[in-house]
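[job 0412] stage=fold_complex status=start
inputs:
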Amino acid sequence: MSKPKVAFYWCASCGGCEEAVVDLAEDILKFVEAVDIVFWPVALDFKRSDVEAMGDGSIAVAFINGAVRNSEQHEMVDLLRRKSQLVIAFGSCAHLGGIPGLANLHCRQAVLDEVYHNVPSVTNPDRTEPMERFEAPQGTLTLPLLWDTVKTLNQVIDVDYYLPGCPPPVKLIADAVSAVLSGQLPEKGSVLAPDIALCEECPRRDTKPEKPALKEFKRPHETTIDPEKCLLAQGLLCLGPVTRKGCDGVCTKANMPCTGCMGPTSHVSDYGAKALSAVASIVDSNDESEIAAILDQIVDPTGTFYRYSLPASLLHRAWRPATDGGRRL
Amino acid sequence: MYDKHTKDKQFEPRIVAFFCNWCTYTAADLAGTARMTYSPNVRVIRIMCSGRLDPQFVLAALREGADGVLIGGCHPGDCHYQEGNYKALRRFTLLRRVLKDLGIEEERIRLAWIAASEGDKVQKTINEITESVRKLGPLKLERRGLLQAEPTILDTVDAAVSAPGGVS
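[job 0412] stage=fold_complex status=done
writing structure:
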């Protein structure tokens, strides 16, 4: 019997998810023994035409990381969807939009302005920007079209399962792979991680007050962090209470507050709103102006609460006028 | 039925109001029995306490067709559950900052303390938010642009209400 075929692909991502696969360490050898990797641009020299030549549904599972924000990524995930029996959204960006999803606070042109003109380290006197087509003497050159809006994988194609995390924890990857290989998969659409908040597995759990109450929010560089005590109780904006567990508390163990990369549990439809709700409710004041002053210490609430999930949020993105001659890209 | 997509009619904003069972909802009842009139643009949803108002409800209302959201709770110190209204105030304060970043004008979201005896304040508050949202125009939201063909939940509710034999 031939081994099941597996594909990996990356869209708008940083490469950390690819690293997470390599982090399987020796286990990756067992994995490679059990499956046939037929496509993995970061590591293996297979091309798009190789995938196109495969029969529909001939790949057992495609792990796709990264958000989708340009026409090439759209074409590639469409292609992989056609060729694969299962598609697993791998990592925060594919699952919820991730860090690239914060571009949804701006429009396409604002992103291009920032990257190609405004960044202090950029010198671009000709004001060159990426173009979809360019007529060169050697022929026509084309580039993928950058979209106005960053999308999660399931806003573009049908997704079977989700592996959360930035990047997904090795244990969850290994569990997901064995579930796929043994065919013992949960209901379609499931997030392949425990459905309970991080506090439950946090080593600082016993020091979490019954009713946290804060008059001051501190950022990690502004304070000396007690390595034993609940971070929230120390005034750090730890999002553990609203974030799915499964990461084994790697950040809180390393003395850093949870930033929410594992996303919400299944009971929450908008992670940012829920995180905002949890944090605001523990403000220790009943006075309108004092409440406002305490909450003003949170420097960038939108970026903090929607750090990994703006494209997956109920409102999806900030409203902006149509760009590029009225086209919404 | 108010059709904000038709240019020849005046824009009628749709406001979703979340009223606390113990104070504001009772006040709205009082306004009704006292036959006070106020703008018919508000759809009232009764919740047990303004502290029950999950910020997700506000986002869901905006996403599903509301142009503005009004939250009504007990005056400070009067909460039936002691401090639910303070929690509502804290959440509202932070939510408004986030909504601003998402391009939603502050005037579209309002929190008002209205006691059970203040039927006139229900009338006044509803009229005020209706007028300020009317001035702003329809809520501009990406999702509605993307899914223009798909009616929002509030479209469906309005259609049911205005259908022959519909609830009034």
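[job 0412] summary: The interface with chain A takes residues 54-56, 58-60, 62-63, 76, 83, 86-87, 89-91, 93-95, 97-98, 101-104, 140-143, 145-146 of chain B (CB under 8 Å).
[job 0412] exit 0
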